[in-house]
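Dear colleagues,

As part of the handover before I leave the project, I'm documenting each prediction I ran so the next person doesn't have to rerun anything. This entry is a single chain, and its sequence is reproduced below.
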Amino acid sequence: MDDLTTNPGGLTNAEKDILHEVGFADESTRAGTSILADRQMRVALSNDPGVEILPLAQALRTYDFVQGLMFGLVDPEENEHVRLVAEHMHDPLGHFIWIKPGAKVKLPVQSFTLLEIPQGRQFTHDITLIDEGAEVEMISGSAVPAEVCRGRHISIGETYMRANAKCTAVTVEHWGPEMEVYSYGYSRMEAGASFGSTAIMMSPIRHHTSRSVSVLGAGASVVSQSIVFAPEGTERVLASETRLTATGARSQDVTRMVSAGGTIVNDALLVGAAAGTEGFLGCDGLKLSDAGEIRAVPSLSALAEGAQLSHEASVGRIDGEKLTYLMASGMAEDAARDLIVRGFLRLSDEQIPEALRTRVVAMVAEAKSGGM
């Protein structure tokens, strides 16, 4: 570890409690742990020979090939937010996670970002390399302590999946209610790679823009779902682009959105750039009040004959018959509504770890009551 970017003391108990809310577990139960707090890499630990975790600044000095990965998937001049992160290239803040060739990692790898300074500014750049034939489960999240309401966070994530690599990932974020967050994720999947992801965005936030771009090679596959909740005062803008560039590439992307007075915009583009590709976009929304807005904009672009692309989009309200039935069975109206919302979000999905499912149910109830 680099003494300038890591804290050998690790995390305090209070910091661990904050991160438990977004999926953190004791480091001894994980194959690797990366924790970034404010302007420091506080933990960079591996318990598996197939996993290497370094502060990005140290990785750039240690491995020449990391220099080719940094800004390999995104132009550092793409927009004002990416430029802000690029300006810190002389002292980059973020992690480098490398799952080595052929590694079959049995325990999850976890990575988290913590912003503890009120009105803080945080610019991060993370690079993940899942090498040829490697297999791994990843859990990541972002959080702030209760006293941090305002601040600004901008992040770039670049993920490279080599041929036949496999990864499943869960991401949970819990920012402050008056924060501005801009997150940019870019991934490239080589032949035969497969990726399954679940993103959970539930907590109140003033504004969050999330943009992702995924490029799939021959036989690569992605199955992703996003669970999005917007209480009053929250605005979320989700923009995604999936490019199927070679025969056999497949993707399935489903977003489930609930507005309890907040605004959600979901702008998803699926591009079939080669014959023999197949993709699906699903955008489902549930409105709980007249306030706020849900806007679903799924788009298909078929550039090659033989690309099979489809989408479905719907926005509705709670089914009155279901509500009446549950209330007739003795359930209070608020409890009945919560049950319907949980069913819509499909929080029983096995892709979400049980501990996180319990926490997400609590987050829905807290957000609706204004308790978050």
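The radius of gyration is 20 Å. Confidence is low (pLDDT under 50) at residues 1-8.

All the best with the project,
I.
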